[in-house]
Amino acid sequence: MFRLTRFITPVVLAFALSAGPALADSNAGSAASKNKADPNYTRAQQMVDDGKYADAIPLLEKILAGDKENADALNLLGYSNRQLGQNDAALAHYQAALALEPRHRGANEYLGELYLTLGDLAKAEERLDVLDSACFFGCDEYTELKKAIADYKAKAGS
């Protein structure tokens, strides 16, 4: 029995470690690789990274005109709108992304942050719960939203 346990434990551990990234990445798959190959998506992502949200929006809308089920583009469109203070538009885009991919890590994080902006701690914590289950071994999106919630609570308590 002891020898069997010594064999099974390394096998289970090896499977968990090799499957971990795939299990943790709810955005993995064809959409992510398709976006990486799309120069328009790459440009839009760079614009968002550079804080050029208003410039990114038309490009993201163009991407979505050709692929209405691109949750990553919907997420970036939501993020860009939120950064410009257009919370209603951001909410609609995050919800559309999550309708396509309920465990989309970015959309869950950013929607949670939007809920904090809107003063809805309970809904932000719901997004954190989704991320907790979507991020098998943890992820940046979970960590970031957890920190944002803690900061929100600290401000509310002071």
How would you characterize the overall build of this protein?
The chain has helices at residues 2-24, 30-37, 39-49, 53-66, 71-83, 87-100, 105-117, 121-134, 140-157. Mean pLDDT is 85; it is low at 1-30. The chain has two domains: 29-101, Serine Threonine Protein Phosphatase 5, Tetratricopeptide repeat (Alpha Horseshoe); 105-158, no CATH class. Helix content is 81%, strand content 0%. It is mostly helical and 158 residues long.
List the topology elements.
Layout: H1 2-24, H2 30-37, H3 39-49, H4 53-66, H5 71-83, H6 87-100, H7 105-117, H8 121-134, H9 140-157
Helix pairs in contact: 3-4, 3-5, 4-5, 5-6, 5-7, 6-7, 7-8, 7-9, 8-9
The biggest sheet amounts to: none
Q: Count the helices. How many?
A: 9
- How many domain regions? 2
Strand count: 0
Gap between N and C termini = 57 Å
Could you list the spans in which at least 5 consecutive residues all have pLDDT below 50? 1-30
Give me the oligomer status.
single chain
Helix content: over 70%
Structural class: mainly alpha
- Cα-atom radius of gyration: 18 Å
Hey, roughly how much beta strand do the residues contain?
under 5%
Question: What is the CATH H-level superfamily of the largest domain?
Answer: Tetratricopeptide repeat domain
Reported by name, the CATH topology of the largest domain is Serine Threonine Protein Phosphatase 5, Tetratricopeptide repeat
- Element order: H for helix, E for strand: HHHHHHHHH
Shape call: globular
